[in-house]
Design a protein that fits this description.
Number of helices: 5
CATH topology: Rossmann fold
Radius of gyration: 15 Å
Structural class: alpha/beta
CATH architecture: 3-Layer(aba) Sandwich
CATH class: Alpha Beta
Distance between the termini: 15 Å
Strand content: 15-25%
Oligomer: single chain
CATH superfamily: P-loop containing nucleotide triphosphate hydrolases
Shape: globular
Strand order of the largest sheet: 3-2-4-5-1-6-7
Length: about 170
Amino acid sequence: MITFICGGSASGKSGFGESLCIKGPGPYYYIATMMPYGEEGQKRVKRHRKMRQNKGFMTIEKYTDIGDIDFPEKGSAILECVGNLTANEMFDEHGNMKDPFEKVTEGIKKLADKCLDLVIISNDVSRDISTYTDGTNDYIKAMGRINNCLAALSDRTYEMVCGIPLKIKGDR
């Protein structure tokens, strides 16, 4: 089963996703995609590791090429998060851009085939109206296309609003 959860920052996506993931069959994998840039990034990764320390997850840090993950045993996994993965696949270390759509969506499809249950966490980055650089606008458009694809691919889709999961697709 594939579950897709999308919402704004600090909306409760991760906690809700973790709770769904551990309802599935074990073992439990937590796929972290945030590249820890600088001291602040290192602190954030350390804080996240501590938050899930006693939850029974085996953490796999994988920043790109998500479909290449090989699990020791099939189980349930949470992918945290598509926003970071998209940025990692879209921008290289020199700031050059490429379209991340195929790499991200095909990688997630391969990943799903290796899991009994997969919970995918993504950011809704398209709701504010502002003027951004071309690169940021391209990222927002790519995230929209990728989120649409993942919602269509999923068995269940939720939107997180103020800590409340709103089911928009799947068993009600």
